[in-house]
TrEMBL record, chains A, B, C, D:
Organism ancestry: Bacteria, Pseudomonadati, Bacteroidota, Cytophagia, Cytophagales
Gene3D superfamilies reported for this sequence: Dihydrodipicolinate Reductase, domain 2 (3.30.360.10), NAD(P)-binding Rossmann-like Domain (3.40.50.720)
Entries under PROSITE patterns matching the protein: ARGC
Reactions performed catalytically: N-acetyl-L-glutamate 5-semialdehyde + phosphate + NADP(+) = N-acetyl-L-glutamyl 5-phosphate + NADPH + H(+)
Domain named Semialdehyde dehydrogenase NAD-binding: residues: 7-145
Record-linked PANTHER family: N-ACETYL-GAMMA-GLUTAMYL-PHOSPHATE REDUCTASE, CHLOROPLASTIC-RELATED, N-ACETYL-GAMMA-GLUTAMYL-PHOSPHATE REDUCTASE, CHLOROPLASTIC-RELATED-RELATED
Keyword Transmembrane: no
Protein name: N-acetyl-gamma-glutamyl-phosphate reductase
Protein's pathway: Amino-acid biosynthesis; L-arginine biosynthesis; N(2)-acetyl-L-ornithine from L-glutamate: step 3/4
Its job: Catalyzes the NADPH-dependent reduction of N-acetyl-5-glutamyl phosphate to yield N-acetyl-L-glutamate 5-semialdehyde.
Length: 347, 347, 347, 347
C-alpha cells in the first residue's frame, strides 16, 4: 500500500543527478517522492524541465523550504559542492536521514576540505556523523548512519578498481597511477565553454592535471583500506559521450602475482556484492551504461610485473544516483537490490 | 509463482532486436524465457554474445530446432526478412502465438511483397491470418491473432504521425511527404560499409531515395485508415546516433484547420493510448530513447496551410522490441503496459 | 611580394565564422590580414582564443575602432545579426568593400527584415547597395558591389538545390518543401541550453518549425529566379555533428520529367561553376566537410512525379566563411578558386 | 613546370592512409602522382572509392604491377602489416625511394618482428637499410635513406611525449606508463565488429592490454634515445571519434625537477622542429586535427615528484600520411614544411 511507503524528498531537480534520482525513485516500490525542489523553477512541473517525464512524473517543483516542515524518511541533496552543507546544517535536528550527493562531507576533515575545495566548511560537526557511502566497503556503517556522503563518480570507479589489493596489503607504496576518463555529464548541466558541444564532440583532453579534487578522496579511502598513508597519481580526461567512466589503474605489488591469484583476490573480495562484476576481458563503458553495475578487469602483466585494473561505471548511476538509492536501501533496511536492477542499455 | 508464467521463446539472439527482447522479457513479470536461439552461436551463453547481460541472463543459446518440440505460449521471431517466413511455415501447426519482427507478413499480399522485397514468398497462407501489429490502431484484432506482423520502425513513427488525420478523412490526396531520420541500429548488427563508424560518425545522408520498402508498408496502412488508395513520398536518412527515429511528416488538408482543432484531433484519437504523448513543442529523440513512448507534435502552419506532424520513437523499442512485447500483452490478455514502463534515458 | 597584397580586416574573432575566415585568409596568397577585432578579448592573441592557431596566427586582437582609421581593401563582418548593420552604417563613407556574414542585408527591404528579425533596421540605405552574395547566381553583380550580404547557411544549401528548376520555370506553385538538417555549429559559439553537449549528442530534433528566418531568405531568392512570388515550407533540424548541412528538397514540376532530362538541367545550369558537383547518388555531409563544395543529387521519382533534390555543404565554409572569400575573390578580380581548394576532410 | 616535378606512386588506395596520402600529395607543389594502385578496385576511378575527391582526383586505379615498370622517385606503401614486406623485397633493385607506412620495417630485427607480429619476416636484408622515420629525431639518417619505416601512430605520440627526458638521461628505469587513446580510424577501414558504429559510439574501452605491438616499437626507440634497455607499460584505448591520438605519459625522473626546468628541456629539445608545439595547458585532440602538428604539455607534479607529459596528434596525419610526406620532403631535399601547412580543423 502507498501509505506504507517511506517518504523521500529530492532537493535540486535541475541537474542530472536530480533527474536520475527521480527516475529511479518514482519506480522504487518502497518509497514515495513527497517533494522535489528547485529554487529557480519552483511552480513549474518536473516534466516542464525534463520533458522525457511527461505523463510519468508531472509533480510540481517546490522551494526547499517545504522540506523543513516535512517529516521525510530520507532527503537526497542533489546540489553543488558548497551548497549542500548549508542544508545539512539547517536540517541537523530533523529526524530524516540525509544522503548528500555533493562532495561536502566526503573528506576526513574541514581542513582537508578547505585545501582541495578552496572554501571554508560551514558545518564542521557534520564530519563526525558522516559516513562515506561506498556500499561495497562500508555497508554496516551506512546502515546505521543518518548522514551519508555519497562518493564521487571518479572515486567510485577508482576505489573499486584497486580496493581488493589495498585491503590485502599488496600495493607497493607510491606506485598507483589512475588514468580516468569520463563522459560529459560529469561536468554538469550548466552551459559553459566546457560543455559546449563543439568543444566536446570529436574531441578528447585531460583536465585538472595534478590538482583534481577527487585525488584526495581516493587517497583517503585507499589509506583507510591499506592502513597507511597512500598517495596516488590521478588524471581525469573528458570523453565525447554522455555517460560513463572508465578508470585504468596501474599498480606495482609488494609481491609477484599471477593472473589466477589476481582473479581470486578480486572474486573473493567482491563475493556477495551483487553489483560488482569481475570480467575476464577489458570491459567497455556500454557494458554498464544505464545500470548500477561496476565491471572490473584485473590484469597481471607478467612482462612488467604490474597490475592493470580497468573498471567502468555509469557516472550518473553507480557514480551518483543509483549509489544514493543503494545507500537508501541500506539505511531503510530494504533488500539492497531494490529498484536497482536496470539492465545496461546497449546499444 | 514462476510455474504460472507464460512461456516464451526468442528466435534469433544475435541482432539488436533479439537482445532488446531479451532485456525486456527477462524482467517481464508474467513470462519466462524458455529458449533463446542462435544457429551461429548455439552452445555459448547469451551473455557471451552480449556482455552487458553477465550475471543477469546467462542462459545457453540453442538451435531453433528446440522450438519445434516445445510447447511455448509465444514465439518471437527476431530474424531477417526472408528468413522468418520459413519458420512461420514450419511451425504453422503449433499452438504457439507467433510475433514476427521481420517484414515478411506486414504487407497485404505476396505480390506486393515480391514487388518491394524482390523475393518470392514461401508461405502465402500466412497472409490470411497475419495481423498488422500496431497496438494503437488494431488492438482488438491483435488480441485474437495467432500471427502478428510487428510493424517496421519507420512505419511506426510515420503512421502514428498522421493516423488521426487519415482516420478523419482530412488528408489531401498526394500531398503527404515523410522525411524520416533513423539512428544507425536500424541498419542492423552486421558489419559492412554502411555500419562502419567512420561512415556514420559526423555524417548524415539520405538512402533508398524513392525505393525504400517501408514506403509501401506506410501507404497500405494509410490506405486502410483513409479508406482510399494513398501514395506517400517517403525518404529515410541515417543519423549518427545509436537509437531513435524522428519523422517529419508534411500534409495538405482537405479543409483549413487551426492549431487548436489540430490538437483536438490528435488528443481525441490517442485518448486512452498510454504510450502516445501529444506534445506542444517539437520533441527530441532523447525524450523517448530507451522507452516505449511515441511523442508527436502536430503543427498547423497558417502561412502555408499545411500540417507538419513530427513524431519520434526509439527504433529498437517502440519501433521493434517493446512493440512486440506490447502485442504479446494484448494476445495474452495482460494489462497492456506490463513490462513497458521504462522511463526514457536522458541524458 | 607582401606589399602588393590586398589588405583585409576581420571584425569579430570569437565566433566560428571569424576563426574560419582567419584560417582561410591567413593562407590566401593575395591578401594580408591587417586587423582582427574583438571587443571582449582585445589585447589577447588570436591563438589565445583559438589554440589550434598557436604558432600560425598569433596576431593581436584589436578593438573594431582601428578599422575606422585604416585603409583596408575588404572588411569582413563576422558579427551577430542586428550588430553588423551598426558597423555598415558607421563605415558607409569608407572605400573598403564590406562583406557582411550576418543576415542584416540579405532581405529585400527593412520591412521584411523587421517582420522576420523582430527588429528595426538602423541603416535603410544599405539595402540599395547590398548584393546577395551567392556566387553561383550573382557573380556579375557581386564583382561590382561594395556591400555583399553573404547568404545564410541553410539558404545556400536550399537555393542551390532547386535553383536550376526555378530558373527554368519548372516548379509547380506551392509545392516546395525543404527539410533541412544542420550540424551544431550553426547555432553559434555561445554556451546555452541549445549548445550543451548533452542536449545535442545522441539527439535530433526540429526547431523553428514554421517560423525560421531563413524561410523568407529562400523565398525571396526563389522568387527572383522564378520570376513569381514563391512560398516554401522550410523546416530546420539539429544534427549531432559539428559541421555540415544537408537539405532534402521536394518539388512538383509543371511538366513530367525523367532522370536524364533532370540531370541535364542541373548540369547545364551549373556548367562552369567549379564548386557545385552534380552527383549520381545521394551525397553525404562528409563528402564536402572542410571544403567549399556543394554536392547536389537531383532525383526524379517516377512513381510520385516529384523531384527530390538533395544538397550538402559545410555550413561554416560554403555556408559562411569560404563563400565570403569567394565573394572577396570576385570583388577583387581574382581567380575565383584562389584559396578555396581545400579537399574535403574525410574521414 | 609539371615536368620538373618528382614522380610518386601510392600503393594501396583503399585505406585511410592511402586516401590521406593522395589528399596531401595531389596538392604538393613538387610532386606528381603517377600511379595509385588497388588490386581490388583497379579500373575504377579513385573518386569512385572516395567520392569526396570527385572532380579533384579522378585518376584511374591500377594494379601494383605498373610500379615495377615505372621509374618513380618515391613509392609510398599504404598496405597492411605483413603485405608491405613482399613489395619491398620485390622492388629491392629499383632506384625509387620507398616509404613504408606499415610496421614491417620499424623494429630492430626479424626476431623481434616475429615475437610481436606472429609472422616470419620475408625480407631480412631490409632491416639493414631501413631508417625509422621520425623526422624530429632522425632527420639526417632519413635524408640519406632509401627505405623509410614510417612510425606507428601510437609510437609517434608516445615517443615525442618523453623523448626530451630520455635524451637527457632523466627517466627512472621502469617508471614509464603510457596511457594512450585513439580515434577509430586507427582500427582501419575494414568492416568488422570493432569498427561497427554501435560498438564505438558512446563507448570507450581498452584493448590489447599488455600485448599491443606498438609497445616494443616505443621501447626500442626509447632505448636508443636513453642508451639503455627501456621497458614501458603501454595501454591503448579506443575513442568514439574519427581522428586523433592523445597519450598521457607518466614517468619518474632520476632527479627532482620543477615546471620551469621541465619546460626548458622540452623547448630546447624541439627547438627548430616546426611541427612540435610545447603547450602551457593540456592540449585537446581538436587542436591538431587535420594537421601535421604534435602538441605536447609537459607537467611537473610537485606533489608526487612525477612528470606527466600529454601529447596529441592526428593519427592519420602526423601518425601516418603527413609524417610520410615529411619523410619524403627530407629524402628529396625539399623544404621540410612543403605541403604540410594545413591549419587544424576546429570545430
Amino acid at each position: 500500500m502507498e501509505n506504507d511507503k517511506y517518504t523521500i524528498g529530492i532537493v535540486g531537480a535541475t541537474g542530472f543527478t536530480g533527474s536520475e534520482l527521480a527516475r529511479l525513485l518514482c519506480q522504487h516500490e518502497n518509497v514515495t517522492i513527497k517533494h522535489i525542489t528547485s529554487e529557480t523553477h519552483k511552480g513549474k512541473l518536473f516534466s516542464d524541465l525534463h520533458p522525457q517525464f511527461l505523463g510519468i512524473l508531472d509533480q510540481k517543483l517546490e522551494s526547499a523550504d517545504v522540506i523543513g516542515d516535512s517529516e521525510l524518511d530520507v532527503i537526497f541533496l542533489a546540489l553543488p559542492h558548497g551548497v549542500s552543507m548549508d542544508f545539512v546544517k539547517k536540517w541537523k535536528h530533523k529526524k530524516s536521514k540525509i544522503i548528500d550527493l555533493s562532495g561536502d562531507f566526503r573528506l576526513s576533515s574541514p581542513e582537508v576540505y578547505k585545501d582541495w575545495y578552496q572554501k571554508d566548511h560551514v558545518f564542521v560537526e557534520g564530519f563526525e556523523n558522516a559516513v562515506y557511502g561506498q556500499p561495497e566497503l562500508f555497508a554496516e556503517q551506512i546502515k546505521k548512519s543518518s548522514l551519508v556522503a555519497n562518493p564521487g563518480c571518479y572515486p567510485t570507479a577508482s576505489i573499486l578498481s584497486l580496493a581488493p589489493l589495498f585491503a590485502a596489503g599488496l600495493i607497493e607504496e607510491g606506485s598507483v597511477i589512475i588514468d580516468a576518463k569520463s563522459g560529459l555529464t560529469g561536468a554538469g548541466v550548466k552551459a559553459n565553454d566546457t560543455t559546449h558541444f563543439s568543444n566536446v564532440n570529436e574531441n578528447f583532453k585531460a583536465y585538472g592535471v595534478g590538482v583534481h579534487r577527487h585525488t584526495v578522496e581516493i587517497e583517503e579511502q585507499f589509506s583507510i583500506l591499506g592502513k597507511s598513508n597512500v598517495q596516488v597519481q590521478f588524471t581525469p580526461h573528458l570523453l565525447p559521450i554522455d555517460r560513463g567512466i572508465l578508470a585504468t589503474s596501474y599498480a606495482k605489488t609488494t609481491r609477484k602475482l599471477d593472473q589466477e591469484s589476481l582473479n581470486s583476490i578480486y572474486n573473493d573480495f567482491y563475493e556477495g556484492k551483487p553489483f560488482v562484476r569481475i570480467r575476464k576481458i577489458a570491459p567497455a563503458i556500454k557494458d554498464v551504461r544505464g545500470s548500477h553495475y561496476c565491471d572490473i578487469f584485473p590484469f597481471w602483466d607478467e612482462r612488467t610485473g604490474r597490475v592493470i585494473a580497468i573498471s567502468t561505471i555509469d557516472n550518473l548511476l553507480k557514480g551518483a544516483a543509483s549509489q544514493a538509492v543503494h545507500n537508501m536501501n541500506l539505511i531503510l533496511g530494504l533488500e539492497e537490490k531494490t529498484g536497482l536492477e536496470q539492465i545496461p542499455l546497449r546499444p
